[in-house]
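Suppose you are handed a protein chain with no further information: no name, no annotation, nothing but its sequence. What can you learn? This example shows the usual starting point.
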Amino acid sequence: MKKFLFLYAFIFAILFGVNNNLFAQAEPVLYFCESYGDDGEVGIADRFTTGFLTVMVKCDFPLNLTDCSIQYDKYNTGTRSFDFYKNFPFTIEPDTKYVFFSKTEDNDMKFEEPGFYRVFLLDNNANTIASSLVEIINR
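A reasonable first move is to predict its three-dimensional structure. Written in structure tokens, the prediction is:
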């Protein structure tokens, strides 16, 4: 009897308990490009030379952020961990779903050294909203 009960429970779980919406990455998505302008995103990639980059964030729903920041953590081969590198504060509109972060008068957003970086979009409490990895190589 226990075998049949287990079998029925297993079949029920398969038919009704499986989520048909499987996603490779949860929203929002953070990615990189060389620049953003009138023609949109230019040079989307995950490997760039040292210098300035534009960080893009795209989401299907409003981010509900006003004060936020982009933070770079650089991979340290000696400790095999990511160490804080730089943080850049920004202000955006709460209903924003698609936004770019790039060099401003207050933020240079420059990758000066080659290496692997973990880049975060953080809210005003330093909670991670989105993150991604980028490799920076010498020119």
